[in-house]
Amino acid sequence: MQPKMIAETTRTMTQVLSPMVRGYRQQTQLCHASVVGSGVKETHHGCLPAAPVAPTQELLNTLLHGYRPTFRRHPLGWEADALLELGARQQMCYYDGKLFGGYLTLLLDRILADCCQPAVTAYLHTSFVHSVPPDVPIRLRAWPEKVDRRKIYLVGSIQIPGSTAGEMVEAIRAHALFVRPRH
């Protein structure tokens, strides 16, 4: 790569990486990265570009692609169930063959919220029992456990295929508290 082209790439990367996550007390660390197409190919060790402050609708649509829950009446509200097969752009792995826990928690938060709209997440506790491979169907489930005025206590889970045909085992369990807004 020519020196002029390197300078242009560095300037472009600085423009892309500058409007990063706000609120951190430490200064944003800029780093040199190789750019391929519209994405970052590689960065120096220990230097990861941060995500933009507000995710675009396109990003959210990509993360939730294929999410189509079904709902059933439950004595305390609604119960939701969804089967999701992740596309290549959704298969975010921190370690090879294991989906990123933050992404799985996002999926749980979404299905839990869908059971009690309008409400906001006040508390979400997740227990990771098994790692989730990126290439298996994922079953998301959520249901209310208790309702106390504006507070809705919910339980959710992510299930993955077990060792026998048709068997689904619980990989992640969630307990959540959602609160309905005051009217």
From TrEMBL:
Family annotation (CDD domains): hot_dog
InterPro entries in UniProt: HotDog_dom_sf
Organism superkingdom: Eukaryota
Protein name: HotDog domain-containing protein
UniProt organism field: Aspergillus tamarii
